[in-house]
Design brief:
It contains one helix and nine strands. With 217 residues, it is of the alpha+beta class.
């Protein structure tokens, strides 16, 4: 460059025009936009947000499924407890008794066995000896209802004399106005064969309650 002691515009330069702008820089122009670090940070934030949304959805599904399972378990438990309670309340006082009686109306509450005491009901027993002749069967009804027909059937289920599921005898009566108990007596001209017997009771010709018992020495 030529000497220019006074400042101002530079002297004439034959290599270039007067007051010319400096030549543009060589190489490709600088790129504009987001840097690499900013892009990494942005994508990282987006990934965290997406993971949070997916986690929230999965958590909601698990919560709903857990509540549904808990409700179903509670409902099943309550149903089971209710069924068990109903079954216990209807069970007979004797393990040898079974009932097909309806939930309403006159039905058989119990079947009791007793030895004979000079023609009357004697001591209550769970089984008989062959010499317990006659044997007493006492049937108690749930209500006082005059004119209720009660039939008491003695069956030989399996006895040593060879009978199986054979009817031995039956007694049929009707209740009076203040009567809810029937006493039936069964007699053989000889000792009772040992084995298993059953009492079937019918209320108005419908099978109601049964009880099995043993005759043994």
């Amino acid at each position: 460059m030529a000497y220019n002691p006074g400042g101002g515009q530079p002297p004439y330069n034959p290599q270039g025009p007067y007051n010319a702008y400096p030549p543009p820089p060589s190489g490709p122009p600088p790129k504009s936009g987001m840097g690499t670090g900013a892009k990494v940070a942005l994508f990282g934030c987006l990934g965290l947000i997406l993971l949070g949304i997916v986690g929230a959805i999965i958590g909601g599904v698990i919560y709903v499924a857990a509540n549904k399972t808990t409700n179903e378990t509670t409902s099943n438990t309550r149903t089971s407890n209710t069924s068990s309670s109903n079954s216990n309340s209807r069970s007979s006082t004797s393990t040898n008794e079974s009932s097909t009686s309806p939930t309403s109306g006159v039905h058989v509450e119990s079947i009791k066995l007793a030895r004979d005491n000079n023609g009357a009901e004697g001591d209550e027993v769970e089984s008989f000896a062959p010499k317990d002749n006659p044997m007493h069967v006492i049937v108690r009804l749930s209500e006082f209802e005059a004119g209720t027909k009660i039939r008491i059937v003695l069956m030989a289920v399996q006895v040593d004399s060879g009978e199986k599921n054979q009817k031995v005898a039956e007694v049929e009566k009707e209740t009076g106005s203040l009567q809810n108990e029937m006493n039936a007596t069964f007699t053989l001209p000889r000792d009772w064969p040992t084995g298993t017997y059953r009492i079937d009771t019918f209320v108005n010709d419908k099978l109601d309650k049964t009880r099995t018992f043993q005759v043994s020495n």
